[in-house]
Amino acid sequence: MNSNKATAPYSLRDLIGYFLKLGTWGFGGPVALAGYMHRDLVEDKQWISEEEYKEGLTLAQLAPGPLAAQLGIYLGYVHYRLLGATLAGLAFVLPSFLMVLALGFIYVHWQGIPWMQAVFYGVGAAVIGIIGTSAWKLTRKSVGSSKVLMTIYILAAVYTVWQENENIWLFLGAGVLYWFLKAPPGILSFLRKAARSPKLLLPPILLNIPAATSGKTLWQILFYFTKAGAFVFGSGLAIVPFLYGGVVKEYGWLNEQQFLDAVAVAMITPGPVVITVGFIGYLTAGFPGACVAAFGTFFPCYLFTVLPAPYFRKYGKHPGIKAFVDGVTAAAIGAISGAVIVLAKRSLIDVYTITIALITAFVLWRFKKIPEPIIILAGAAIGLLLKTLLKT
């Protein structure tokens, strides 16, 4: 029987409050955010079941757009349907959007953000310790002792480290493989029903968005960032190469240094990494540009989550679907673990950052109740201190 708000162990206000908090203090990008949601909503609060979480993670991996935002939207949908999905998504994105607006204002009026680089020097290292711990817990919980799932997990992790991106066909292949091994019969009828359902197809509105018929920059921003949100697979920084090609090369909205600063903003602010689109939009066309860029990026991922959600909720307990979800989940967590290594190569650049990351991981392992915001603030302070000392 499907869950609904009558049986929800929490109120809609509780849900909004949680995602506001996560959007305010949830550092580390999709790897950490997915881990936080599992720890908080599945393990600690027990608002969401393990199966519901896996369904959401699978859908977020299979659809284009930012993984963490889609996972949050789906978890909001579980008990409170469309209203829960909408409010959870807004609550999750709003805090970091306001932060990048403030940083954009500071950047424009004080010419550059050298202090951000010093802050990220420490924060980036601390975040590696946080997301490494989250990935380890997620692996232990979801992959378990299955040799097949562990093989899928390792292959996905190795591929992610090798290519430094995620491959949708790898996730699909993992799901199909595990389905054939665990529960091959019965799923074909579901696939036939899904193929006949027009609601599972790509929303026509996303394919019929007119090109920038007006020369106005806001229309160009809306069209470009809608494409980014609708057609770029991979979470977190996977969208960066696509943005670089349009923002710097095609339209010339930002120069190279401004774009690198925008990526830095994505890394040092909490919430979804792709919220950097708000910063880019602000630098391009002020407050309206930030709003249009954020809407264009996140609205497609919202549609790609709420449209298929009823079918995931309805058919998710089917043995064939469950086997497919387990296979995709193993590949997704493997990709998340591989992403930790990729990000570590960029953030752990000397003995100081390596030490910060190791101490962070040890502290989280030894003292499980220490809030991440305290660790992030400590990392920022250490980064500023080290940068100051190293310059002298």
Helices and strands in order, then pairings?
Elements: H1 12-25, H2 29-44, H3 50-62, H4 67-110, H5 114-142, H6 147-163, H7 168-182, H8 187-196, H9 204-207, H10 217-231, H11 240-250, H12 256-268, H13 276-306, H14 309-315, H15 319-347, H16 351-366, H17 372-391
Task: Name the descriptors.
392 residues; 17 helices; mainly alpha; single chain
Structure description:
- The chain has one domain (12-391).
- The longest helix has 44 residues, at 67-110.
- With 392 residues, it is mainly α.
- It is globular and about 60 Å long.
- It has 17 helices and no strands.
Q: How would you sum up this structure in a few lines?
A:
This protein has 17 helices and no strands.
| Helical coverage, percent range | over 70%
Low-confidence stretches: 197-215
Order of helices and strands: HHHHHHHHHHHHHHHHH
How many structurally independent domains? 1
CA radius of gyration is 21 Å
Give the distance, in angstroms, between the N- and C-terminal Cα atoms. Answer: 65 Å
